[in-house]
Design brief:
- The chain is an alpha/beta fold.
- It has one domain (13-21, 51-103, 128-309): UDP-N-acetylmuramoyl-L-alanine:D-glutamate ligase, CATH 3.40.1190.
- 31% of the residues lie in helices and 26% in strands.
- The chain has nine helices and 13 strands.
- The protein has helices spanning 51-61, 76-86, 152-164, 180-184, 194-201, 206-217, 257-270, 275-289, 302-309, and strands at 13-18, 22-29, 43-49, 66-73, 95-98, 105-111, 117-122, 142-147, 168-173, 189-193, 221-225, 230-235, 238-243.
- The strands form two sheets. The protein has a nine-stranded mixed sheet with strand order 5-4-1-8-9-10-11-12-13, with helices on both faces.
- Helix 3 links the parallel strand 8 and strand 9.
- Helix 1 crosses helix 7 and helix 5 (194-201) crosses helix 6.
- The chain is globular, with a radius of gyration of 18 Å.
- The two termini are 21 Å apart.
- 49% of the residues are buried.
Length: 310
């Protein structure tokens, strides 16, 4: 089955990202600590992350052209975050550093038995985008706009400009936020977490929740990531269930696995693959990411992805 979208031709960028960037402090422990206890850590590291920044890096590694709209603080972490994108050749013409702001950070505790993680994060209010702040002209040069809903009014303005310009709109969502309903009515591809579906619709049955989401919001593709179990998409009245892949060498860290799934799905869309093949690519990218600690450390190249799928 083909995606129900027509991509713009001759756009400068394949995907324009708007949303979160972060610097992560990743702490590996033998087991997740109980309340009011102590545990000796096995290792720790600092690495760049954030949902949308990570997705833009993943797309670049697969050979697509990506651009990023986002704000960094004026602190040392802001320098780390911007350089991490610059080094991957992500376009930063719409990125900026905000004087006096602190870059978003996350402390991530990884249970090394399974690689599952717990995230403790904070985003400085100074990094917020209002409706009038976003560079709407950026969507003119992109085939796809992909965002997180952290600044909903800004997202709505970008989405309206994108749709008026023939740009496909995609959202990465895992929580119910203010203005979520008008926002979801403004996008073409909705991929959420299983937690989001439960929070949004109060349904335990995933297929029923996806059907409700598509009926209510009208997106051409809706879906949910299911961790190691894979994913479930709904497109053209058909459910597409895709199994997850075993992580080569075992799962070291699930941080950024959902972002990586979006990398593979958008890669399939841009390169003209059917929905079924794109879902398989999405799960493959997520599995390969989990080979190492950090959201971006093991994001694959195009050749790595092709070899893994073979």
């Amino acid at each position: 089955m083909q995606f129900p979208f027509t991509l713009k031709e001759n756009a400068q960028f394949d995907v324009l990202g708007f949303g979160t960037n972060a610097v992560d402090f990743l702490i590996r422990v033998p087991h997740y600590p109980e309340f009011n206890s102590k545990v000796e850590l096995s290792d720790y590291t600092r690495a760049a992350g954030g949902e949308i920044a990570t997705t833009m890096v993943g797309l670049r590694r697969l050979g697509l052209r990506s651009s990023y709209i986002g704000r960094f603080g004026s602190d040392a972490s802001g320098e780390i975050g911007m350089n991490s994108l610059r080094d991957e050749d992500v376009d930063l013409r719409y990125a900026e550093r905000i004087d006096g702001a602190r870059t978003q950070i996350a402390f991530i505790i990884i249970d090394e038995r399974s690689g599952e993680r717990t995230v403790i994060w904070r985003r400085d209010e100074k990094l917020h985008y209002g409706e009038a702040d976003v560079p709407v002209e950026a969507v003119n040069d992109a085939k796809v706009l992909h965002f997180t809903p952290h600044d909903a009014q800004a997202c709505l303005r970008l989405a309206a400009a994108a749709r008026a310009n023939g740009t496909i709109v995609s959202i990465d969502i895992d929580n119910v936020v203010e203005d979520v309903e008008p926002l979801l009515k403004s996008v073409d591809i909705i991929v959420g977490s299983s937690d989001f579906l439960a929070k949004m619709f109060g349904m335990s049955d995933t297929r029923s929740a996806l059907s409700e989401m598509q009926m209510r919001f009208g997106a051409g593709v809706v879906g949910v990531t299911l961790g190691s179990a894979g994913s479930l998409l709904l497109c053209g009245g058909q459910f597409i269930e895709t199994k997850g892949f075993d992580v080569p060498g075992g799962c070291k860290d699930t941080t950024g696995a959902g972002d990586s799934f979006r990398v593979g799905l958008l890669y399939g869309l841009i390169t003209g693959e059917p929905v079924e093949a794109s879902a398989r690519m999405a799960n493959a990218v997520a599995a390969l990411k989990c080979r190492s600690v950090g959201a971006r450390t093991s994001l694959p190249t195009e050749q790595e992805l092709i070899s893994f799928l073979k």
